Amino acid sequence: MPEQQVTTTRSFCRVCTSVCGILVDTVGEQVVRVRGDRDHPMSQGYTCAKGRALPAMHHHPRRIERPLMRAAGSLQPTSWELCLDDLGGRLREIIGRHGPSAVGIFFGSGLGMDAAGYRMAETLQRSIRTPARFSPLTIDGTAKVLAAILVGGFPGLTPQPDYERAKLVVYLGVNPVVSHGHSAGMPSPTTTVRSLRSRAEVWVVDPRLSETACLASHHIAPRPGTDYAILAYLVRELLREGADPGVLADRAVGGDALRAAVEPYTLGHSARLADVPADQLTALAAAIRRAGHLAIDTGTGITMSADANVVQWLAWALMILTDSMNRPGGVWFHPGFYRQLDAAPTRALPLDRIFAPGPPSRPELSGFLGEWPCAALPSEIAAGNIRAVLNLGGGLLTAFPDERVLRPALAQLDVLATTDIIDNETTALSTHVLPTKDQLERADISLWDFMSLRVAGQYSPPVVEPVGERRSTWWVLAELGRRLGHELPGVLPSDDGPESDDAMLAAQTSRARCTFADLAARRYVETSWELPAPWVEDHLQRLGGWRLAPPQLVAQLAALEPPAALCLVPRRQKRHLNSQLTFLGDAVEVMLHPDDAASAGVADGEPVIVRSASGELTGTARVDPGMRRGAVSVPHGHSGANVNLLTSHQQADPLTGMARYSGVQVSVHPSPVPACDRDDQPQ
Ligand SMILES: Nc1nc2c(c(=O)[nH]1)N[C@H]1C(S)=C(S)[C@@H](COP(=O)(O)OP(=O)(O)OC[C@H]3O[C@@H](n4cnc5c(=O)[nH]c(N)nc54)[C@H](O)[C@@H]3O)O[C@H]1N2
Ligand SMILES: Nc1nc2c(c(=O)[nH]1)N[C@H]1C(S)=C(S)[C@@H](COP(=O)(O)OP(=O)(O)OC[C@H]3O[C@@H](n4cnc5c(=O)[nH]c(N)nc54)[C@H](O)[C@@H]3O)O[C@H]1N2
Ligand code: SF4
Ligand SMILES: [Mo]
To answer: Taking 50 as the threshold, does the pLDDT of residue 682 lie above it?
Structure first.
């Protein structure tokens, strides 16, 4: 037999938003290897374990290859025609009887990286006219957009550190060395942070000596959920000495209200609240004065906490007061590549467009930016308001708060239709399972352009043929729309070939900084950005200056309460992404300070129970002097020991609906039974 040839295709990884350039080796339809593309301008040959696991993901023994439909209590293989007819019929009936808001749609992370599918999902949602749209925004980070809106007057303002010229970067509750960034994908993060450290001060604020903190010049380990005290002190200090007088006169409003809001945060008060040595705080204040400008990058350690909104606001305030916004050595604002945010009408958004009526079962929560809080899904189902859920590329059961409440709620639905590529707990609960093309099977663009340190677009053709009956997500949703009586614009639903994938992507890039033909031919197109950028200055002028003291946030600061003595904090692990790739073997390791372990009678390497008012889980204790006292770090994404057994659907931020995943009160106990910490067979 002649040996089959290895074909190498250039593509880019869509496991996370770093979108590293990859070379995919295939033999026939077998994907044999993924490696870094050295010629890729952004990632320059870098890949991580997750990207290199794409062949294992593609050939996963439990991959879904054909549509499944629940019949007589179990999921049975069926045809697309029958599956979509049945699903369409049921949705029509539900909408006819209960109205469009009886259909909830989750735009999960698996959909988020499928550009054409994402666009079609938005079109379908608009056609159905359901307000019940959910996404990782309310389980991941509403605070950042809120600060952009309330302080900056435009949700499209994403500050990115000016790494080239920065003299001081503060990482606050973000661990790029493991996560590769929260608001900006950072390929090769260890190299980036090391090289930054060689020419700038790098401060990490994290209750844990994180992997990033190990590379930093300074580390402050506050009690979880007290970052606001540190920032309020720094703002207070800067207002007394060091704030740029020009900024307060010409570029910002609300200085006096800000001064009044942070007045209680003296050095002693803040150091006590955060339980850190006062000289660490004065040293950081001195470093800011020395550097002049600074960049603050935050992550889920902040956005998942009770003080999320306040911290984001004070971080912006600090960058404004040091005239770091839109300034070399401070932060630049991403102008977008596909979206061209710099050309968007950057007038301040009226607040009634941002905070819309929310889920009726949770009157204390509002809708935020056209979405409903994920935390409200169980109560909406229990109230009979939501009767069908379209779960598009989401791991609902591992991602949403309160598994104990969510699981029975999902089981109560008339319809739970899931698009996915690998069988999991959520597909097992579904009434319809819709197998869509994985990232190696579809053409795609890098949709989240503004979550990048470059202004760039990427295109990849499909690498292999779809397995089994898998179809494009956009095709599935267009076909579903047709059965609901909507001809969704811009597609030929019957034609699901590579050419129509490209037609979908071309429509999506109609306002990009280059033509689709150019992007498809060159695969990677980058344009430069300016600092200062005139579009930001124009926006600021129209706005009348940064708003230093939004009243909603001033009120939240005044109402913050100290955290519990022992609380849960989130953390990501290297070898899986959320609920995906757990077959690579990351274990549920519960990190604890030696004193907390000793007082609970828990030993390193032994099984430990973590308990909250909502539930409990068992993991393996990692007793680590790098943890601060009072913080219990539990990774997310595991189904065997789901951290969302500890979180509550009732705890959500009243302004944005963001679920509370950090600072939840817990207790720890030795476990008589071993940890259930593997949730997928290693390959
Ligand atoms: N307590 C707690 N809860 C958390 C977190 C935490 O830190 N603590 N983290 C939160 C965060 S930051 C987020 S973003 C959410 C994430 O929650 P989700 O948005 O639910 O994301 P994933 O768990 O990554 O699940 C994505 C699903 O998409 C599927 N998938 C992968 N590729 C494709 C594809 O090409 N097509 C389709 N159709 N499906 C695909 C995967 O198999 C997987 O089932 O979870 C949140 N939940
Ligand atoms: N390998 C890997 N990469 C990922 C993911 C993954 O699951 N695995 N998920 C992706 C997703 S969806 C997201 S949203 C991003 C998130 O990216 P990051 O926000 O960087 O997430 P983490 O790596 O969990 O880092 C959060 C840090 O905050 C700290 N922290 C916890 N509580 C507090 C607190 O109260 N104050 C402070 N100052 N710090 C605190 C934690 O100890 C932790 O080190 O990562 C993405 N990348
Ligand atoms: S960093 Fe993200 S994009 Fe790069 S290889 Fe890893 S998972 Fe893929
Ligand atoms: Mo996330």
So the answer is: no
Tokens of 249: 């006169």
Inter-CA distances, 73 with 82, 429, 575, Å: 17, 10, 35
User: Mean pLDDT score of the chain, rounded to an integer?
Assistant: 95
- 348-394: per-residue pLDDT in tens? 567 777 898 899 999 999 999 999 999 999 999 999 999 999 999 99
Helices within 242-350 (DSSP H only)? 245-246, 255-262, 267-274, 278-291, 300-303, 308-321
Q: To test ligand 1's pocket by mutation, which of 470, 636, 679 has the most ligand atoms within 8 angstroms of CB? A: 636
CA of 383 to the centre of ligand 3 (A): 40
Using a 10 angstrom Cβ sphere, with 0-12 exposed, 13-18 middle and 19 or more buried, the burial of residue 236 is: buried
- The residue among 246, 183, 153, 40 whose CA lies nearest residue 544 is 153
109 CA to centre of own chain: 8
pLDDT tens string 440-459: 999 999 999 999 999 999 99
How many H helices and E strands in the chain?
26, 30
* pLDDT tens digit sequence for 138-185: 999 999 999 999 999 999 999 999 999 999 999 999 999 999 999 999
Is 140 touching ligand 2 by the criterion CB < 6 Å?
A: yes
Whether ligand 2 lies within 6 angstroms of the CB of 174 is answered as: yes
Confidence of residue 683 (pLDDT cuts 50, 70, 90): very low
DSSP states of 385-408 as a string? S--EEEEES--HHHHSS-HHHHHH
- Cα 20 to averaged position of ligand 3 atoms, centre (Å): 6
Share of the chain above pLDDT 70, in %: 97
DSSP letters spanning 38-65: TT-TTTTT---HHHHTHHHHHT-TTB--
Contact present, 662 and 568 (Cβ < 8 Å): yes
Give the rounded percent of residues in the chain with a pLDDT score beyond 90. 91
Secondary structure (3-state) at 337: coil
* Angle, vertex CA 481, rays to CA 478 and CA 482, nearest 5: 90
pLDDT at 530: 94
- What is the spatial distance between Cα 178 and Cα 293, in angstroms, rounded to a whole number? 26
**535: Cβ–Cβ under 8 A, 6 or more apart, which residues?**
335, 341, 342, 343, 346
d(CA 38, CA 42): 9
Token reading at 291: 């550097």
The secondary structure of 486-512 as a DSSP string is ---TT--TT--SHHHHHHHHHHHTTTS
* Ligand whose nearest atom lies closest to the CA of 417: 1
Contact in structure between 634 and 646 (CB atoms under 8 Å): yes
User: φ, ψ for residue 119 (rounded to 5)?
Assistant: -65, -40
Phi, psi of 397 (to 5 degrees): -70, -30
Instruction: List residues bridging with 436 in a β-sheet.
Output: 471
Of all ligands present, the nearest one to the C-alpha of 139 is 1
- Please state the rounded mean pLDDT for residues 67-73: 95
350 burial (CB, 10 Å; 0-12 / 13-18 / 19+) is exposed
Q: What is the pLDDT of residues 276-326, one digit of tens each?
A: 999 999 999 999 999 999 999 999 999 999 999 999 999 999 999 999 999
Stated length of the chain:
683
228 neighbors 662 (Cβ within 8 angstroms): no
Using DSSP, state whether 228 is helix, strand or coil.
helix
